[in-house]
Amino acid sequence: MEPWVGSFGARAEKMARQPVYLDHNASTPLLPEARGALVDALDLSGNPSSVHAQGRALKTLIETARDQVATAAGAQRGQVVFTGSATEAITQAIVGGARALPLDGIVVSAGEHAAVMKAAEASGLPVSVVGLLASGLVDLDSLAARFDTAEARGETLLVCVQWVNNETGVIQPIAAVSARVGASRHFLFVDAVQAFGKLDLDFAASAADMMAVSGHKIGGPAGIGALLVKAHADQVRLIPGGGQELGRRGGTESTATIAGFGAAAETFGRHYDAGRIGGLLAQIEAGLLALSPDCMVFGQAAPRLGNVVNFAVPGIGNAFAMMGLDLAGVAVSAGSACSSGKVGRSPVLAAMGVDPALADCGLRVSLGWNSTEEDVARFLAAFGEIVGRHRTRHGRATIVAAA
Ligand code: PLP
Q1: Which of 18, 75, 128, 129 has the fewest CB atoms lying closer than 10 Å?
Q2: What is the pTM of this model?
Q3: Which of 23, 108, 167, 193 to mutate for ligand 1's pocket (most ligand atoms within 8 Å of CB)?
């Protein structure tokens, strides 16, 4: 055999074995610009609080990143507080908010991320949970009823509603929630982690008092986030420390991850082509329906972000499907990334009233800036084999009525 034939074959085989990453809502790969900024900053020594030249150079990187994040979020630069993750920003807003604001209770939607749920629990204040409709949208009537009770009791609430659900991509009616909270004495916190870079946050003009965003969902490094905060809530704090971030978040700043976050915030829009990604998602949804006409898409009746689909083929359990996909080199998830690494039942699907047996078949495929047609084809081929194997063993999957 000609040597080039062998090397071509080996390369083709290697390419065929390249993993297919379709779990961008868990974490999206680092953008080249973010990597460059991160690595360059790692090589600098010093402490950004120091007055000498090395310290000032680091401080400049942080302030550049603050401008970049502020611009991407429609915030003023002074409204951006860097934190160690969005989870920390969320905890600062809720636990710190319970300490600093005149609050009587916290209201969360049932679809909130664990970071919000746990922070609400930890706040020490009474927590009310507003349910989701079957569509995945927050139940605005229940929220209105909670406001009426607060009115009658003279309570002030911190309302926590996420902008986009990480599991289903459902876009919550933030404008309607804002209209209700903005005109009242209540406070609004928005978890904008999955919306940042994909929807216009326009924080400064919004009714939100605080918002949380994360680096690793927009091609920045993990371990960096920001709390966007309006001046009247500026006293909301979690970590006192040595006065960094104008006293709003103590601890020596992680200049490299901040610089990486800033670069990602500035360049994400150049890499993330929503139209192209929406087209790939449409191919996935059409492909799934062709493979299994009883495939159900959760949140189908609601406005959804065009990069994620959470679906179930009745009878095909997500643990089984994920194992098969993993063996084929395709990474997806069964809802939100769980720290235990186990596949648990999704509280979001439960809140939407999805039958538990069907929820246990739920799989989340989320696309990102570097997703390709080939990723889609390989996912559909691998999932097609799983469906085929299931049919051989169990006969055709049962048809379940749409929830
Ligand atoms: N909120 C939402 C909606 C998320 O999807 C995530 C991450 O999965 C978080 C909060 C937490 O973000 P971080 O990983 O930066 O703590």
Answers
A1: 18
A2: 0.93
A3: 193
Exposure on the CB side of residue 83, measured as CA atoms within 13 A = 27
Among 306, 277, 296, 258, smallest CA distance to 402 is for 296
pLDDT per residue over 169-215, tens digit each? 999 999 999 999 988 999 999 999 999 999 999 999 999 999 999 99
Cβ 105 vs Cβ 230: under 8 Å:
no
Total number of residues shown for the chain? 403
337 Cα–ligand 1 center, Å: 9
Tens-place pLDDT, residues 304-342: 999 999 999 999 999 999 999 999 999 999 965 554 555
Rounded Cα–Cα distance for residues 359 and 336 (Å) = 13
Would you say the C-alpha torsion 364, 107, 199, 39 has a positive or negative sign?
negative
Distance, in Å, from the CA atom of 190 to the CA atom of 209, rounded to the nearest integer, reads 8
Distances (CA, A) of 38 to 58, 131, 262, 359: 12, 41, 10, 39
Ligand 1 is surrounded, with C-beta below 6 A, by 85-87, 113, 115, 162, 166, 191, 193-194, 214, 225, 336-337
Strand partners, 196: 199
Alpha carbon of residue 283 to chain centroid: 23
